[in-house]
Amino acid sequence: MSKLFSFIKAPIVFVLRQPIYWFAKKVSSAPDRRMVFERLSEMYANICENEDSKKGALYSMDFEDNNFIILSDVHKGNRSRRDEFKPAEKNYLAALDFYDQMGANYINLGDSEEFWKFNIFSIQHHNKRTFAAEAKFAKRKAFYKIFGNHDLFWKMDPFSKFHLKQAYGQAVNIYEGIVIRVKYKDKGHVDVFCTHGHQGDKRSDGNNFSKWFVSYIWGPLQAFLDININTPAVVSSEKTLHNKLMYEWSQEQENLVLITGHTHQPIFHSYNHIKFLKEELKDAEERGDRGSVKKLQERIKRHPSQCGQEAPKLSQYRPTYFNAGCCCYSDGSITGIEIKNGYIRLVRWADEGDGPERQVLEELPLQELKQMFFYR
User: What is the edge-to-edge ordering of all strands in the sheet holding 177-183?
Assistant: First the structure.
């Protein structure tokens, strides 16, 4: 039967693939600055000003007494060769077990399930362990699930609540964004605004019809043709543009930190750190230390100053934009943003031969973050 299906499918794919590529180029993921700014501003205001907001939820918490793990872009699939999450499952499960034992809150920034390639039944069947691991957070009321452009299904499908309850064993809310208001004892607050980061994308963040089209037509069509249309996650120029726009919007806000995913590119801002990294890079280049040069270049890429062509003076920086990266790197590693013990950290989980291990890539004291917002 499968051979017959492949025989019938082959000429259809041959005829449709090139026209679909052409069409994709016309409507490719191209965020518009005005749309990005409007959508983020609208959602942020809606969440903060409306107790019954349909966009998301506002929580007031003290980071000194709570800890969080923020992960994005898991892209759960069906364990076939097209499943990007397959190599990372071991590290993802190890990370969730670690954070659950710590009593952490888990914020999932979207694209957790890959509905552009696989259907809900296939994803649920092949991801029982991952859903069970996430359900532990839900049972503690410590699980916050946001939808992205690849899992718009959770927002659009009329039976999504049923499927969520089936996956997690209880009702789970699905949000477009979450604002966590961090109140300092002596002065003011900082809002940590968490969302997927696809806002302003004309294709997957437009009107209800465009969202429906992406969810029910565009995604399945790509799966049938076995193609991967250009997205920020796979195109370097799109990564830079998305990160640049997110960073610029966050810089214009007052007392706000924006954390997104979407681009699969970790971004982290440490105070004055970029200056030291560049000095270390210069020394490594002069020594001819290629290994150190490569590592330092990778760390520099994670700094928001690299989001645009020209960076403002270091003294003008505020740590307003972070990107959690993803949980489906080809080497099986995952990255995320961790907030614990008075620090915000960019962490990586990877198996270098001795099993999954947690690595701290960058860190910033929350007290230092406070000083950069309130004492300038």
Answer: 56-61, 177-183, 189-195, 256-260, 321-323
Strand-pairing partners, residue 178, are 57, 194
Taking the model in full, what pTM does it have? 0.81
DSSP string, 136-171: HHHHTT-EEEE--STTTHHHH-TTHHHHHHHHHSS-
Tokens of 116: 């552009």
Domains and CATH numbers, the chain: 2-268+314-374 (3.60.21)
Distance CA 130, CA 124 (A): 9
49-53, 88-92, 207-211, range with greatest mean pLDDT = 88-92
Phi, psi of 51 (to 5 degrees): -65, -35
Locate the DSSP E strands across 304-355: 321-323, 334-340, 343-351
Beta partners for residue 338, in sequence order: 69, 345
Look up residue 270 and give its two tokens: 């440490």
In this structure, are strands 343-351 and 356-365 parallel, antiparallel, or unpaired?
A: antiparallel
Indicate the Cα dihedral angle 110, 114, 119, 123, nearest 10°: -90
β-bridge mates for residue 362, sequence order: 346
Which residue's structure tokens are 């062509």? 309
SS3 269: coil
Residue-wise pLDDT for 291-302, tens only, equals: 888 888 887 776
- How far is the C-alpha of 295 from the C-alpha of 291, rounded, in Å? 6
37-68 pLDDT, tens digit each? 999 999 999 999 988 888 899 988 775 667 89
Residue showing tokens 């839900």 = 138
SS3 287: helix
Q: How many residues does the chain have?
A: 376
